[in-house]
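Figure caption, in words: inputs first, then the predicted bound structure.
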Amino acid sequence: MQRLPKIVLALLIQLGVLLVVTVGVYLAPAVISPPYPYWGLVFIQALLASLVSCRLGLPCWWRWIQFFIPVGLYLGVLLKFDPIWALVIFVVVWMVFANAFKERVPLYLTNNTTREALKNLVKRKRRVRFLDLGCGLGGNVAFMSQLKPVAESHGVETAPIPYLISKMITALRGGQTFAMDMWKTELAYYDVVYAFLSPEPMPRLWNKVKEEMLPGSIFVSNSFAVPDVEPSEVWELSDSRKTILYIYRL
Ligand SMILES: C[S@@+](CC[C@H](N)C(=O)[O-])C[C@H]1O[C@@H](n2cnc3c(N)ncnc32)[C@H](O)[C@@H]1O
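Bound structure (S-adenosylmethionine present):
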């Protein structure tokens, strides 16, 4: 069960619970006489689905999603919500978070404290070529492009809406972003490669880093260490989320 994509597992759990609730409705007249209010049945469905999800292999925080799926659908029916809007919302969400489904990497952004740390990392270097793997809205690329030691600042991004925003931001503030899959980048070109992704791609990414990056270059991962690889340095930052930068000197 745990090998199934989470969204499929979540839907199977909802269907399983629906089956249980349906059987319950058939058996219930022996104890409580009908009719049963729809909101009550929806509440039971939502509650049961959220209670069993964690035990059946979904991350425990998905219990909230599992609770609000039936409640949201019910409210949508009550309010006669046009399904076309659901489709529009889905498409927009997909265009922002496409990589959450494909790569298990959602969009969240590097903060200013972390950018200052990146600035410190390059300040004594000359002619740095910087790359942000999965550059989101392009903020890091623009920021790094303005630093004296940085000769080129690039970013790659495949989610359509963040990519378009990154294009606008870098056009205004400097740097360059490309609509490119990070797995197709040539890391050998860069002196500092930065990634703020998720635990999921780190082992594969480390193989790419080892194969391509040149001696003397630096790979920085925000928050997610490469499993079983000792970083050269670990920087604990003083921002509110206590960001940790894992620095690997090749
Ligand atoms: C956590 S965000 C970080 C954004 C930005 N680097 C920052 O630090 O502010 C990760 C980004 O990586 C992008 N991403 C994930 N997998 C990717 C891939 N294979 N190729 C390009 N971009 C990818 C996601 O779309 C997302 O925008």
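The domain at 112-249 is CATH 3.40.50.150 (Rossmann fold).
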